[in-house]
Write a structure and sequence with these properties.
This protein is mostly helical. It has helices at about 5-15, 25-40, 40-60, 65-155.
Length: about 160
């Protein structure tokens, strides 16, 4: 009579059995079941594992999901940097505008100062001329007065002296 095992008994029996190299048969069966679910041959799975190891080596030990997440993060940061660059460009344009406006105002102020200095020089010139003519006029008036007085003395009667 043949002995029948139920599933738990079979699993317990397999967990105790080992291969020639000392690995448990149950572990090998579990691995086989995982591989069987993929639809790939053991060689293809080995190739995929080697590709994944190389990929992780190149990508600093990151999984494809982590790389995708990091890629999205880099895109977001790139957009933020582009936004900041645009803002800096606008601020530079605004700074240049106000710098030009300030320079233009300084030029106008210099022009006004130069015009004011010209007007002051011209005013001072005419003031000096007026004073000189006033002095000459005063001298002429004095001479005229003396002349009148001399004429009055000749007549003998002086109205103003």
């Amino acid at each position: 009579m043949e002995r029948q095992y139920d599933a738990s008994c079979l699993e317990e029996h397999l967990n105790k059995r080992t291969n020639f190299d000392g690995t448990l048969i149950a572990n090998q069966l579990k691995e086989y079941q995982r591989y069987r679910d993929t639809g790939l041959t053991p060689e293809e799975i080995t190739d995929h594992e080697e590709i994944l190891k190389a990929y992780r080596h190149v990508c600093g030990g990151k999984s494809p999901e982590e790389i995708t997440r990091l890629h999205k993060l880099i895109k977001q940061q790139g957009k933020e940097l582009n936004r900041r660059d645009e803002l800096i460009r606008k601020l530079d344009e605004e700074r240049d505008y106000w710098k030009n406006e300030t320079q233009e105002m300084a030029n106008i102020a210099d022009k006004n100062i130069n015009e004011k200095l010209k007007v002051q020089e011209e005013r001072d010139f005419w003031e000096r001329e007026a004073k000189r003519y006033c002095a000459a006029l005063g001298e002429q008036k004095i001479k005229l007065q003396r002349l009148k007085c001399e004429m009055c003395k000749d007549i003998g009667k002086c109205v103003e002296c």
